[in-house]
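Researcher: I'm preparing a figure for a lab meeting and need a structural model of a single chain. I don't have an experimental structure, so a prediction will have to do for now. The sequence is pasted below. Please return the structure as tokens so I can convert it later.
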Amino acid sequence: MTSERAAVEAAAKPEQVAELPHTIASRFIILIICMAMVLSTLAYGTVHTWSLAFFQVGAAAIVLCWAVDAWRTGVLRFSRNVLQLPLLGLVALGLVQLLPLGGAFGADTLSVEPSRTLSLDPFWTRIAIVQAASLAIYFAAALAFIDSPRRLRLMVRAITIFGFLLALFSMMQAFTSQGKLFWFAELKQAIPFGPFINRHHFAGYMELALALPLAIALAGGAVEADRRLLYGFAAGLMGIALIMTNSRGGLVSLVAEIVFLISLTEFRARKAEEPSVDAPSSWRPVLVRLGVSFALLFAIVFGSLLYGGEESLSRFIGTVNSQDPTTGRAHFWSVTLDIIRDHPLIGVGLGAYSVAFTRYDTRGGQFRVEQAHNDYLQILSDAGIVGAALGLFFIVALFRRGFLRRQSRDPFRRAVATGAMTGCFAVLVHSFFDFTLHTTANALLFLLLAALATINGRVEEAPRRRRRRRRRSSQTPETTSSGDGAEAEPQQQSSAATAGV
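Model: Understood. Here is the structure written out token by token.
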């Protein structure tokens, strides 16, 4: 009787821990996320009000589909990932900045209406709050609904294929239509590349997109050998397109990205080696990976010179001997420091930097600056110490959880976590020189990579040996020696592996 009860409980356990069914609504959520990634990029990076409106409509559609999925399954899916908390905290901070507790800033100027809120520009603070809430919805949906190995691979392939096609299209446009977007749109005060108005933002997008295929190509066992070549080719083409932007911050970030990726790969390889007292440490894996990294850099630079000509690297040499190598950033940063000094706690308001800069500018309005060209200084000026603490918490939690996910036994999962962290690291380096994360398309891709790096074990596949063992045990149940009760063990293993626990 006891053995029969154990067998019944073991047979029921897979149903208890089984994954929730993928409803049509959940599939639409994944589709909306992928479409938002593509359309937000093609719509000039989504920096205009009309494109922001469409992006926010997509977030509202996700909420609607989320409610339908909860109604169909009877369970409201959500992730307990702590990376969502800083985004919600930023929205709450923006709401606090709209409280009517400030002074009458702007009363002595003609261009700015008097503002009695804590934010110096309440209109743009409202816009920033809605935008932050929309990004939080996309991020939370990715964490909740990328819940299987199949969906993980789907998202990785979508990012890789779109990044490859975007790089190819942008290079073709650069060869045939210099200075125009989509061969016909010519915008004022634009330094475009691809569909982006600012070439530095395109470089930041390539930093994010090429990290996943590059990590998969360098990781052993993640995919088949022939597919590794395809992933490597896609990453190389994206690297060439990045260098052709002539973005100095992009080149610095690309070098930092490759060094970071090789360091992570070597750390994993060293950790996987079994310690041996007699055997001396081998430097061959280190030299091989260093050689691969230098070969990759050489191939990207050579490809840039081959397809882009000498002009593709001229900006790096031309600005060294100029009077201001920072191209005005030194002045922007000094003004930003003055703003931070006078508004240290909660800042001047989300999106209110341009108004504050006008007041603190020492050059009488010579520059019309809307961003600080340094995301770290701008978070301090817009959101103060509170916003900086939220940002620091996000970065620390991202890499802490990402390193934990790299300990998975699934090689593809390890490669994805490594590549996602590498892309985030590269754009964080670029943020010292530009404001790439203020572009909606870049911010969305950054959050998608953060989700891929930190999603829990649901997206991991069971080890192959374990699957073979389960297959054999299901085919020959008579080999067990304890009768019906002994059959419960392989069933329990199968249920645990299916649930990804």
